[in-house]
Amino acid sequence: MSTTAVPQRAWVEQVMGLPVSIHLRGDRLTGAEAGDRVAAVYAELRQVDAVLSPYRDDSDLSAWERGALRPADADPMLALVLALGDEARRRTEGWFDPRALPGPRPGGPRYDPSGLVKGWAVERAARHLAGLDGYGWCLNAGGDVLVHAPDGQPAWRVGLEHPRDPARIMRVLACRSGAVATSGSAHRGAHIIDPHTRRPATATRAVTVTGPTLLWADVHATAAAARGPAALPWLEGLDGYEALLVTRSGLVRSTTGWPAP
Amino acid sequence: MRRITLWLFSTVAALVLLFSYRTSTGSPAPAGAAQTTTATGPAATAAGGGKTYTGSVAATRWGDVQVAITVTDGRITDVAVPVYPSGNGKDQEINAYALPVLRQETLAAQNADIDTVSGATVTSDGYRESLQAALDAAHLG
Question: Residue A182 is nearest to which of B112, B118, B138, comparing CB atoms?
Fold first, then answer.
């Protein structure tokens, strides 16, 4: 069972337009230390949102896009994320491209790095939890998950949402350390854009990628969702990452290293 | 802890109302179906092995809502909605459907033997109806 003898406590806040929940397992969950670390995670995510949100006119990202701010004069996170955007495009053979996305408001395509900012920011903020010696933690940002289970604690059981019915679970993964990211259309419809046609990608219902980092698990999942089942050979070649893909017709396919079942 | 528990009650209250909204109009849930929590805070009482948390009454655009959950061994074992909009016949008709659905969904998520859910990006609005919300609720406060 997932309930264990280890006490567990959860926090939830809405940040970056997402529900971000943190679960801690340990013996001193009501003490100031745990609460302070959790608060630091949320504070950092809010700070990232203030600098990098494409939905806020006063963010450094928006100012840079308007031509009103040079990366050198902006918060250093902006230059870092612009560089990550280029790297993501290279790593995904062009299937993840922040330059080719429709803007959050009506208008032409604009630069929207949100698809990588979330994973990057959550992973960066998780270092506050990593400093809690002996604690297990599970960070879930809108369906993308990063976990750590120390020796002596059970693995985190991560349910993969059924792409046709978000109230059901399709598979369960037991994870001790690392990321599980899913891209798909279950909640927001066909919102993943094929960067080549700039039209919604519809060949997959959902792609889940597991691996050591949330940033790249999430980028790989989004790229594969845009590319469709043809992405499987590419996914197969990714070092340290495994993927499970549900096609439009409901077929489930995975890389050979995907943990059974 | 109190703030988080309050948030949970607001969430569950909003869920009830989103069900109501969808049932009555058939359109997607409105963004930011905001509620104002006015009362002092949840009260906890122990009964029959479980602990029951009774939320404050939340004033919403549809009327007042109050939610109570019973937690036993870290799991939600019951959800009750002692106060809900019943001002007219339509309200009563919707609630007769939505309240049992809420209760069932919250309890079903408890039985999935999972700690968290990975899925297509859940927005803040969608979260209110998600399994993850129920899993979080079981460990809040």
Answer: B118
